[in-house]
Amino acid sequence: STLREKEGKLPYVMHYCQNYWLGKWFLGKYRLDSDFLKCEKPLLLEPPDDIGKQYDFYIKPGGNPYGTKEKLHQHSIKR
Predict the structure, then answer these.
(1) Cα separation of 4 and 10, whole Å?
(2) Beta-carbon neighbour count of residue 22 at 10 Å?
(3) Between the N and C ends of the chain, which has fewer C-beta atoms within 10 Å?
(4) What does the angle CA 53 – CA 21 – CA 55 come to, to the nearest 5 degrees?
(5) What angle (nearest 5°) sits at the alpha carbon of residue 61, between those of residues 59 and 66?
(6) How far is Cα 59 from Cα 26, in angstroms, rounded to an integer?
(7) Does 68 have pLDDT greater than 60?
(8) Is 40 helix (H, G, I), strand (E, B) or coil?
(9) In angstroms, what CA-CA distances link 71 with 25, 43, 48, 51?
(10) How far apart are CA 73 and CA 41, in angstroms?
């Protein structure tokens, strides 16, 4: 089989060294349990396919005051 055929069967892997947030969705490595990859743990929720269209803000965890919506910068939207 070709490499392109194999790519469709590979698991998704996310390597991150920063926090990511959009709207109410947040992902940060220090917020995950250390055993989050064990089979007994539930899967992470997938954000909706159109998440980029739904939100033009983010809610930074621990914001001041907590839950404050902050507008996304234009360069962040294009990522």
Answers:
(1) 10
(2) 20
(3) N
(4) 20
(5) 75
(6) 8
(7) yes
(8) coil
(9) 14, 29, 20, 15
(10) 34
pLDDT (0 to 100) of residue 42: 82
Report the alpha-carbon distance of residue 67 to residue 4 in Å, rounded.
43
Query: Strand 57-59 to strand 25-27: parallel, antiparallel, or no bridges (unpaired)?
Result: unpaired
Tell whether pTM > 0.70: no
**Region label for 29, one of left (φ > 0), alpha (ψ between -120 and 50) or beta (otherwise):** alpha
Is the bond preceding 65 in cis, omega lying within 30 degrees of 0? yes
Distances (CA, A) of 38 to 8, 41, 42: 24, 6, 9
- How far apart are the C-alpha atoms of 55 and 47, rounded to whole Å? 12
The more confident residue out of 9 and 22 is: 22
What are the pLDDT digits (tens) for 57-67?
888 777 678 78
- Give the pLDDT of residue 16: 66
